[in-house]
Amino acid sequence: MDMFLEVPDDCDPITHVWGHMVPGIGPAAAGFASAVYEHSTLGLEEFEAARLRIAQINGCEFCLDWRTDRDGETVPDWYLGEVADWVESDRLSTRALLAAEYAERFALDHHGIDEELWSRMRAEYSDRELVELSMSIGSWLTFGRINRVFGLDTACQLPDSAPRHS
User: Fold this and answer.
1) Closest to 154 (Cα-Cα) out of 57, 59, 62, 34
2) What CATH number is given for 13-68+75-149 in this structure?
3) pTM for the whole thing?
4) Confidence at residue 166, expressed as pLDDT on a 0 to 100 scale
5) Largest Cα span, the chain
6) DSSP 160
7) What pLDDT, on a 0 to 100 scale, did the predictor assign at position 158?
8) Is the CB of residue 49 less than 8 Å from the CB of residue 103?
9) Cα distances (angstroms) measured from residue 110 to each of 52, 68, 92, 105, 142
10) CB-based burial of residue 19 (10 Å sphere; 0-12 exposed, 13-18 middle, 19+ buried)?
11) How far apart (Å, rounded) are the C-alpha atoms in residues 34 and 20?
12) CA atoms in the 13 A half-sphere facing the CB of 116
């Protein structure tokens, strides 16, 4: 997908769109997006299961290629495929499976999140973790979609604390 917006040749597309075009909103949004990575207390597996599921739903090229790095640790190469087929996965932990399911339902059918799912989620996650997971999913869903819709997903950058993995 080509970039939908006009960005001067001498400008970084993300900096231009998120910083220069909407200076009262973009930097605050970028701060929230960064905070999800810098301050998360969720385990790496469930964090990545939810993040990757949203990346798959959004079709965000950058996010699909990205692997969050925590102290030199990333999820294994097979993780993306398991998250894509989380319903059939026998390799993901219970928390990761729930994170992928919750992310999918949050993005595609939030009105369909029912007591049965909440019961399973609450058996594995604390209330604080549920709020953090929901805010993280909301960030990825919103900002990933914004970047994808404008064709910025191939120019995207995430915080330095989480180096890109190919």
Assistant:
1) 62
2) 1.20.1290.10
3) 0.90
4) 34
5) 52
6) T
7) 55
8) yes
9) 18, 26, 23, 6, 14
10) middle
11) 18
12) 3
**Rounded to 5 degrees, what angle do the CA atoms 158, 150, 30 make?**
35
Give the three-class secondary structure for 151. coil
SS (H, E, C) 13-47: HHHHHHHHHCCCCHHHHHHHHHHHHHCCCCCHHHH
- Which regions of the chain are under pLDDT 50? 159-166
Predicted pLDDT at 153: 83
Give the integer Cα–Cα distance in Å for 113 and 97.
15
Cβ neighbourhood burial of 15 (10 Å; 0-12, 13-18, 19+): middle
Answer yes or no: are the C-beta atoms of 35 and 121 closer than 8 Å. no
Strand residue runs (E) in the chain: none
Per this entry, what is the length of the chain?
166
Compute the distance between CA of residue 108 and CA of residue 143 in angstroms, rounded to an integer: 16
* Structure-token pair, residue 9: 């040749």
* Domain segments of the chain as ranges: 13-68+75-149
Q: Are 165 and 18 in contact (CB under 8 A)?
A: no
Nearest to 100 by CA among 29, 30, 42: 42
- Token look-up 């692997």 returns 67
